Amino acid sequence: MNKFMAVFFSLMLVFSSVQQGYGEAGAVKYYAVQIGSYEKKDIMESALKRLQGMGYRPYWKSEGGRYKMFLGNYSSKGQADGVLSGLGSKGIDGFVRERVKYVSANAKPAGAAKAQEPSADAGAGKDSKAVLQAADTAIADEPAFENNSQADAADTGLMSKNFKRQKDVTIQGVYGSDVFFFDVDKDWDIRGAYLNLVFSQSQLEPGEGQQGNDSTLTVYINKFPVYSMDLSGRDQYKEQVRVNIPADKVSPGFNEISVRTYKRIMELPCKDDLNPANWIAFHKESYVHVDFMDKKDSLDISGYPYPYLKSSDDIKPQGIIVIPDDFKRSELEAAGILSAGFGKGSRFENLNVRVYRHSQSPPVEHSNVIFIGGSANSPGEVMSLLSEQEKGSLKNSAVIKKVKSPYSGSHSMLAIISDDEASLVNAAKALTDEKLVVQMNSNVQLMGESAGAGGNEQDEYEYYRLENLGYSDVLLEGLFRQQATFGIKVPKNRKVKEGAKLDIRFRYSKVLDFEKSLMTVYLNDTPIGSKKLSGENADNDSFEVEIPKELRDVNYYEMKIAFDLNMDDVYCEIRPQTASWAFVSAQSKAYLPYEYRDYPLLEDYEAPFVKDMKFNDLVIVLPEDPTSEELGTACSIAAFLGHSVKNVDGISITTPGGFSKEDENSNLIVIGTPGRNGLVKDLNGRLNMRFDEDFKKFVSNEHVTVLEKYSENIAAIQIVDSPYRSGGKMLVLTGSSQREVVNAGRYLFDFNLVERLRGNLAIIDGKGNMQYEYVGEKAKKIMEGQQAQPAEDLGGSRPDGQGMSSQVRNFVIFTAAVLIITVMGSAFIMKRSRR
């Protein structure tokens, strides 16, 4: 008995000491603005990026199995209330939370919780700051105490954008280099930039005092050196180094970041270059950060789409599009065309377009506004902006006029007004054509019915030149392995055919050892061909290589061109790096003959609505009385599809009341619940998953089973054959409620969510979980021909696992231990009592 009780009290002493560690913690009270609580991490991250795009610095924390997003750590409630008020003026809801953190008095500040940038002390002592920073390393980018409100910070106009690497890159040998690119908008006024380089390297290095202990890394921006560092003694996995980039070295358009290394682990370079243990890796977590302010706006239309479209971490229009309450089809169509133009001009960015009817629009004093309308349905404050002469031209022409906003002196309005529907649509198309916009060097432009239809440029649809993709010539300098990487996107409705090939144009130094020097081309990390370099061709060489069959059925190629540049006796002698070089011409191209996919699925979206870089006779059908959310969904879809077009012909938006016989010959995207969009009711019998007789919920069928309660709160994205014409296709976005439809709509315009789509039926619930089905024989055959992938890679129906926090886990362990000991003690006492 005495022995058992001793063990019992010892265990209790251990657990009480664990809890005592918590009991001795210092308490820090502060205030934060909570602006979201999410079940799914990817949806939270998307919202977080949107706020970053508005100039805020939000952070997130996992609490109770949900991802919660906050702004600021404020020492007073008044500061937090001020931030909340600023958010409310911009249409962002939230509330102030009082938060307390408990930290051991001996805790040291945790580097993982450091602020992103220094901020002023807000009344809390430095010790309190340290305690707060140490409290929870699970917080992502949580700032220190703030003195100035985030709303004020946003109003300064300073914005930022991160350009991330796509893949890890490994370099082996003594000399190495890697090149990647980032694209800077012409309307940015660069205020600062840095490269956050994440790398790992071999843990081996020469012993102290030995030769060769001089490994270095140098960073170049547009071939200008900006930073060098000693690599010795840095053996941490994924070590981070921040390299400042001079703002005056960053140019509009594509910029080149080059990282060159000289790496030694032994005394003799001849051994180092052949030793596989001599390596350095640059990780995909590396990124270039750019701080910028938008250039000062002018009233010339030639600057369009600025300031109605601005770039930041999650680019979205900083302006809004407003149409009349009693809009015409041409006004709705013009809004869709402008949105498609936004996408056309920002091909690699998420766009969340805001479109409102006039009476539904939020306070517009904080926004740049595009107003589209006619003389009869436009409000008086808009019509008063036009001169009498301009009003007189509205019958046969459209007036495009840029003025100071009547709602705010610090913002602008672009009014597009016409009583002629064809002229109005044509004016919207003209604003998507850069060659026409640059000629609009005043604040007023009249557009007729036939002038400027959005461009008729012809393109070599099978050829992809690096120059046309935005890349410039690339110079690689240094010995041994040097490489550059380029991306080529193939439209999703195409399947590359036999005969596809790469044509690389290049030249190189004549002082190389041509017996040991060669060039190798990789596609998606697969080597597809090499060529030995020669002195005869050094000034003008080329290499054609066919794309193998197993790499043809993809929609994105990462083309890596690698040179192995060697010189005579270089292994045991040190030679200048600049003596060995290779140059890749931007005239290099990919020839990608193709055939169309005859049965497009959701994984092929944007097909079939985009074909040959043009809209493929697309009509989007909205509910008869669309809300601002439904208008925004339709126009954001138009913007996403606009990423892949050369001009904006071939797209229209209407409602069931305006749906015509001519529209039946088009490919359709139908949006809304059956109760709000009558066309969904008409099409119900053709859907892969149908509604019940009351159109309140989905019902199970032989292809898919849904529980009755679950079916009342889901949305579905379905691709089916059009009932109106042979070969036509329809995408139907519908659901049991308007909220579910709008939430599921993000899967059609957010890059991260679009990549998760599969099959011809995708079911999305209110928590963001998605499951998909291949319905019908054709779809199942395509599925069987595809390589199987894990469900988590496909973004399947399994929800993300939520791990419990360390505090909860400790509490559970403690409670379980106490219960076990209590039960054991009770059993022992009962046994003794029986005796």
UniProtKB/TrEMBL annotation:
Start and end residues of each SPOR domain: 25-99
InterPro entries registered for this protein in UniProt: Cell_synthase_bac (IPR018513), SPOR-like_dom (IPR007730), SPOR-like_sf (IPR036680)
GO MF terms held by the record: peptidoglycan binding
Signal sequence segment: 1-20
Subcellular location: Cell membrane
UniProt keyword Membrane, yes or no: yes
Cellular component GO terms, alphabetical: plasma membrane
UniProt keyword annotation of Transport present: no
Keywords on record: Cell membrane, Membrane, Signal, Transmembrane, Transmembrane helix
Residue stretches spanning the membrane: 811-830
Gene Ontology BP terms: UDP-alpha-D-glucose metabolic process
Record's bilayer topology term: Single-pass membrane protein
Entry protein name: Cellulose synthase domain-containing protein
